[in-house]
Amino acid sequence: MIGEAVRSGARGEFGALVPIRPAVKKTEKCLRGHWLTLDLYDKLAPFSQRYRLHGWLCEVCRGQEVCDPEARRLAEWALLDVTAQHAPDAAPGGGLVLVAYPPATGTLVGRIALHLDGTEVGTVTASPCGRCRMATLDYVHVAAEYRRLGFGRTLVAAAVARAPSYRWTAPLPDGPVAQSFRARIAMRRAGLSCVHAGVLERG
Predict the structure, then answer these.
(1) 85-202 topology per CATH
(2) What is the overall mean pLDDT for the chain?
(3) Considering the entire predicted model, what is its pTM?
């Protein structure tokens, strides 16, 4: 809330949507592969009012985009800490945040949602098994108007962050768009379901 008004961003008053990436200790390259650590050209560390996140801005990319208005906007991107996952009843109402929903009783499947100003814009479900130390990335979905911004890959990173030492697999989806996204995920195809899932459901 801002005064009595809802923070919507619908009129662009908090800035445009920019790509996001999982936060890392050291960002070496921009989204187009220009080196940021060599101090060849200027770089900035802006704060996205839209997402309420810090990020980076590559001046080389910005110059390219000024010269080519049709170029994809990749000069600026925001960084989201994928280990910061909030409980549903404690999630901030503003900015871009991850909300973790635990598995229902008797199942392994948990869900992580990406919320922008309190509205769900993407989700991932995963089934980690502590006994097998294996996990399956079951499903990833991003609302159409928020695609090609890195939301999907950030959700995948958030799922893996909950069990980083596990052996991860993922099914092969249908459709060219889903297959293109799946081919960028460094996980082997899913095999047989975890035997403990059935035990939990029967128990």
Answers:
(1) Aminopeptidase (3.40.630)
(2) 88
(3) 0.86
